[in-house]
Specification:
It contains 11 helices and 7 strands. The chain has about 300 residues and is α/β, with parallel strands linked by helices. It has a domain of about 180 residues: 3-Layer(aba) Sandwich (Aldehyde Dehydrogenase, Chain A, domain 2), CATH 3.40.309.10.
Length: about 300
Amino acid sequence: MDCDLETAFPTALLVHDGLQATTLRQLAPETNLRVVAFVDRTADVQQAAHTLLSARTSFGTRSAYAPDLILVNAFVHENFLKHVEAFLTESKSEYRDKIRVEVRKLTGLAKNRVEKSSASVHMCPDAANDIAQRPKTAREALDNDQEPGLLNISPMTSIDDGIDFLSTGLRQPYQALYIFSDAKSANYISQHLSAEATFVNRMPEALLLGPPAPFSPSQPISIHHRYTPVMFTEARPAWTANAKRREHTEPVCSLQQALAPLPPNGRPLYEVSVGFFEQGIFIGLGMFGVPILVTLGVGVVPGVKYLLLR
């Protein structure tokens, strides 16, 4: 049976413009972000090597916050590789034997290769050849298609060289940034590189366990909880009860009190204050006027006596 809409629904409003789809907002982490680490010449090289390698080899080399690229200052690059080899020798990781051989090869050639070609070590459990040239850009070093567990250790001539290397053709921010250096260098590096989380001379162990945290502008990354209740809330205006100290705050915010005349300072109206410029004039008269008057007095009195005696 045919029925007219206006007859069936006399109070309905028919809109022919269509429906506006609601915006779907998702709270999910970005999977293409990478983790980088800086090891400056002012850092504790042994601590940095053990911390970074422990993060890379733990949890099956698949931790979301394990470093993908380590930039080491050229002055401590060879020493850093020695500590890497020592750590892998003592480590109980299942990838110890495969990685240790490649690190030992690079340790013997590190000095010549760094000076000639700026070599980097690529430590991958499944790769046959783990020694390669330093990539031209950070995009090549942090390729999304690289094998799991791959760790790039590249030398840098200075902090600015490392910043330029990471800023060339690579999307920022990074998932995490680990800096091993003194306070001034860490502050300089963190100001020029954008990361969702930055840690100086430390790497929280709780951060390595679990998925990457989603980006939330209302709250920084939590080390122990990836998703917090604050991320699922949105600020809205609400009616609140009167403040307990409202009677104390109302006089301060009162417009009448702000426009009230200032109380008198108690100084008589006929009193004339001596300002800055008046003080300068008086000092000048005292310095130059008094000697002139004294000189005239000393010279005039004998002159008058001399004229009277004649």
